[in-house]
Design brief:
Layout: H1 2-22, E1 30-34, E2 37-40, H2 41-53, H3 63-89, H4 96-107, H5 112-121, H6 126-146, H7 155-164, E3 170-171, E4 175-184, H8 202-217, H9 222-229, E5 241-246, H10 247-250, H11 254-260, E6 272-275, E7 282-294, E8 297-298, H12 304-332, E9 336-338, H13 339-348
Helix pairs in contact: 2-3, 3-6, 4-6
């Protein structure tokens, strides 16, 4: 009997040692596991490095800030892995054909050279882009099935929202939806466009903006030209789209306002001087396109744009709530081990 107990103890001991030997952790370069699937330190470090590279003007983070950022990155990777596993279980993983189709769509506005320039600026390889697209498309498929397909916004809810938020649809002044192509004579600034094309000095700026104006006049697409040549970094990636500008704000630049107010939707201004905010001297040149003009006054519920706006707001609000709840449900059904969190806690809480 004693011998049997001793053999059983040895068996249990050997089993626990075997389990410990198979258990992966930080020493193996694994920072977390999701249902046993490892997430590697190299994955976290790569994204961390990319984020720093995409914000070169950001101050180098302190050790605590770096750890906090890496924890946030790992959290996102854990959520993505949970979603991928659930999508695979539901047979909703994006296929190679799905990824190829999305790539074709992304490349459509650009030449191959322009697309590669954009890819390089994002610090991504083609394989990494395909990987990111697959994850994004997979998540969209899962959310469409589990969340979006379950959301219904009724006419009664639209009416109720409008009556409770009527003031939101009363424009106190006209607004102008504008796009802009901007060229400056400040040679030291970054270009911010697909061509990495930057004027240096006033003469070169004038030649560049005139060449762009000539292409607009011959029918070239304004948005494509803005993405490729505009030197305004915050709008160039969106085809120069500035959003809606209140009339009172536009009147701060009387010459530009006078040129824009004459336009019909779809038309563009002549070349206009761009004034330095401090010196009020010419610092470059701009061309504006009027996309639409919104008159002041109350928007009625019968306006299709108002109805669509309300439906979208209600849908998005519910989708956000359901998504948060759904992810929590998936998280509760998943075995997650976060070795990076454990290590940071032990190192800091001494």
């Amino acid at each position: 009997m004693v011998k049997m107990r001793r053999n059983a103890s040895l068996l249990l001991l050997s089993s626990s040692l075997l389990f410990a030997g198979c258990h992966k952790g930080p020493q193996d370069g694994v920072v977390a596991t999701v249902n046993g699937h490892p997430i590697l330190q190299t994955e976290v470090d790569k994204i961390y490095t990319q984020q720093l590279a995409n914000n070169p003007q950001q101050q180098q983070p302190s050790p605590d800030q770096a750890d906090s950022l890496k924890l946030n990155i790992l959290h996102e990777l854990i959520v993505e892995e949970i979603v991928e596993q659930r999508a695979a279980k539901e047979n909703l993983t994006a296929s190679d054909a799905d990824v190829d189709a999305k790539l074709v769509e992304m490349k459509a506005p650009y030449t191959e050279e322009q697309f590669q320039t954009r890819l390089k600026a994002s610090n991504l390889t083609m394989d990494e882009l395909r990987h990111d697209l697959r994850r994004s498309l997979t998540q969209s498929k899962l959310l469409n099935k589990e969340i979006n397909s379950r959301i219904t916004v009724t006419d009664a809810e639209v009416t109720s929202y409008y009556n409770a938020h009527k003031a939101e649809f009363n424009l106190i002044e006209p607004q102008y939806h504008l796009a802009q192509i901007q060229v400056t004579d400040q040679g030291a600034a970054q270009a911010g466009n697909l061509q990495n094309n930057k004027a240096s000095g006033d003469e070169e700026a004038r030649k560049k903006i005139q060449a762009i104006k000539n292409r607009i006049d011959t029918g070239d697409d304004f948005g494509t030209l803005a993405a490729n040549f505009s030197e305004r970094q915050d709008t160039a990636p969106n085809g120069g789209d500035m959003g809606f500008i209140p009339e009172s704000q536009m009147k701060g630049d009387p010459a530009t306002y006078a040129a824009i107010v004459k336009l019909k939707p779809g038309e563009t201004t002549d070349i206009l001087p761009l004034l330095d905010a401090q010196t009020h001297k010419v610092a470059g040149y701009s061309i504006y396109k009027l996309i639409s003009r919104e008159a002041a006054g109350q928007r009625d519920l019968s306006d299709p744009r108002v109805q669509q706006n309300i439906r979208q707001q209600l849908h998005d609000s519910r989708a956000q709530l359901l998504k948060a709840a759904y992810f929590e449900m998936l998280r509760d059904q998943t075995k997650v081990e976060n070795f990076l969190a454990e290590k940071i806690f032990k190192d800091v809480a001494k």
